[in-house]
Amino acid sequence: MRSAPAPFSARSPAYWLTIVAGAVVTNIVSLSVHVGMLQGLGVPFPDRSGVSPAAALLNAALAVLALLTSYDLARVRLAGRPFWQRALIVAALFAGLKELLRGSLMDAVVTTGWTFSAAQMLSSTVYSVVLGAVVVGVTPRLQRLWLRAIAAIVITALMMFAVRPLADALFAPLLASLAHLKHADVYPFPYGWHVLSWAYLTYFEPVIASIIIAALVWPALAGSALRRSLKTAALIVLIKGALLPTFVFSLWNRAGVGAGMLSESQFLFEAILLGLLAAGTWALAQHRRGSPSGPLP
Hints:
The protein is mainly α. The protein contains eleven helices and no strands. The protein has helices spanning 13-40, 53-74, 83-97, 100-111, 114-138, 145-177, 193-202, 204-217, 225-240, 244-247, 257-289. The longest helix has 33 residues, at 145-177. Mean pLDDT is 92; it is low at 291-297.
């Protein structure tokens, strides 16, 4: 039986150095794939304007399925916490992987419209919180994979066609009142160091979320550290919604399937490296102090 994790104050400097160094490496390596392909190699940003709604629904459902699975694995680490805390943790991790805060900040950096960009984030914040509460509420009843898959489709449909429109409508008056603060990009593409420095700084949002997910699911995963890392990376890639676009969304790309796969692949490669390096960071940190299990300290 594995021992409970030591309190944060009892963990060695080597442990924290591993986490911090791993986060920095994960940040630089993962994001540099996207930046290098987009700005260095001239690979265009994906054109998803013609993607089938059914394909978009399927991709979102895979993300929800991975989120349900991740929470099921994480329940042992979150044991004893009240429902609202668990719901907010799931919501924050989902929003972090989806780069909710980062997206708002980067829009503000490029346009200098900080107020409007912050207001635009409110609807997605509500979406994430509702999804987090639903996931925490239904996961214990979904112990069979086929039940979880069906639930993921139903939850996704409800979120996309009910919760999202309601959340958008809720904040529509506020956004309309701030419309005069919205304007075109001040810093055009290709971006200079001013924008890129913000891009790397804000990318710590999905990096931190990924390492926390690895910490939460790790004790419930079977196998070696390598197998655990691969399983964790797969969950992260799916929650980010980075797998299906390369192989399915590209079918609707106006420039052709090959060009579509190439443009989408920059995010797939980025997500794969993010998942592997974040999981590897956690695995190495555990090697420094032993393998934890049980509730979070």
